[in-house]
Amino acid sequence: MPRCSEPTRCTLPARHGAGPLVGAAWVLEELNRRIDRFTYRPESVKELPSSGWSTPPHFANADEQANLNDIIASSLNGAPTFAAGVEFYEARFKKDKGSQEAAKRMQDGRWTRKQQQGDVAPARQRLVSLKPDHSLDKVVHLCKMDSWGAVSAAPLRVPGNASAPAASLLLAPEWLFSHFPYGIFFPAYRVCHAA
C-alpha cells in the first residue's frame, strides 16, 4: 500500500533488494504519484504546460492506462509528459461541458496532434523490435495470422537520472488480444469462426 506524506509525495513500501531506483520501479512509482495527484488535487492540472487555461471543475484524468502511456513515453524520451493522457482529455472533457477555450483547442488540429502524438511518436522510435520464434508457426492459430509478427520492448529509464539502471518492458503484442471479437480483429474473428 502506498504511503503519502502529502498529496503529491507518495512512496511505495521498500523495494526488495533495496538497490538503486531502476526504470521499472520509477514507472510504477510515477504512476502512483500521478493517480494520487489527479485524484486528490485535480486543480493541479493547471500546472501542466498546456492546461493553464483550465477552469473548475477540472477533469484531471487519473485513468491508470492513459497515465501509464504518458509515463512510458516520459521514460523513453527522458522528459516528463502529460500531453496524451491528461492534457488532451482535459480539453476534450471541457469542450463537451461547453468550455469555449477547450473547444478552440480541440478544433486546432496542430494542438490536438501535438497532444496526442508529440511525445508518443518520438517514444515509438525508441522501441526495440523482437522477432517471434517461427518454429511455433505450425501450432499458432490466430484469426488474423498477419498479426503474428514482431513484438516491441521499451527500454525504461528514469528521466533526469542517467546513472539509474535501465529496465525493459515488453509491450503486449497485437495478437495477444486476437481472441476478443472487437476492433481490428472482429472481421477476421467472424470469418475464422464461421466454419
Quaternary class: single chain
Order of helices and strands: EEHHHHHHEEEH
The assigned structural class equals alpha+beta
**Per DSSP, what share of the residues sits in E-state strands of 2 or more residues?**
5-15%
Shape: globular
Major sheet: arrangement of strands: 3-4-5
Q: Approximately how much helix is present in the residues?
A: 25-40%
- Estimated radius of gyration: 20 Å
Arithmetic mean pLDDT: 80
The count of helical stretches stands at 7
Descriptive key words:
two-stranded antiparallel ribbon, 7 helices, 5 strands, globular, 3-stranded antiparallel β-sheet, alpha+beta, 195 residues, 39% helix
Walkthrough of the structure:
By secondary structure, the protein is an alpha+beta fold. The chain has a domain at 3-125. It is built from seven helices and five strands; from the N terminus they run E-E-H-H-H-H-H-H-E-E-E-H. The strands form two sheets. The chain has a three-stranded antiparallel beta sheet with strand order 3-4-5. The protein has a two-stranded antiparallel sheet with strand order 1-2. Strand 1 (3-6) and strand 2 form a beta hairpin.
